Amino acid sequence: MAYPTPVNSRITDAVTQQNLMVLGGASTVAMGSIYQSAAHSLSIAFQNAVQAQKQASISAQAASNMGVIQVYQAGSMGAAVGAARIAQPPAGSSSLEKALVLLVAVKLLNL
Question: CA 85, CA 80: separation in Å to the nearest integer?
Answer without folding.
Answer: 9
